[in-house]
Design a protein that fits this description.
- With 65 residues, the chain is an all-alpha fold.
- The protein has a domain at 13-51.
- Helices cover 54% and strands 0% of the residues.
- It contains 2 helices and no strands.
- The protein has helices at 13-22, 28-52.
- Helix 1 crosses helix 2 (28-52).
- The longest helix has 25 residues, at 28-52.
- It is elongated.
- 2% of the residues are buried.
């Protein structure tokens, strides 16, 4: 379940409006939440990639020539 809490921050309004346009969010809150989700996802994906780098291999690889 999502927990929601009211927060007050001093943010650059131009950045918020630009973000809202870029991700086609209906509200500023939606834009900020989506941006946070994206950063969290990226950090988790990079962590997983680094942890699994070099694990396994490629089988049945064919030459492109």
């Amino acid at each position: 379940m999502k927990s929601r809490k009211r927060k007050n921050y001093w943010l650059d309004e131009n950045k918020i409006k630009r973000l809202q346009q870029l991700i086609k969010a209906k509200t500023e809150t939606e834009a900020i939440e989506k941006a946070i989700d994206l950063v969290v996802f990226q950090k988790e994906a990079v962590k997983a990639w680094v942890e699994n780098a070099g694990v396994g291999g490629v089988e049945g690889r064919r030459s492109l020539h």
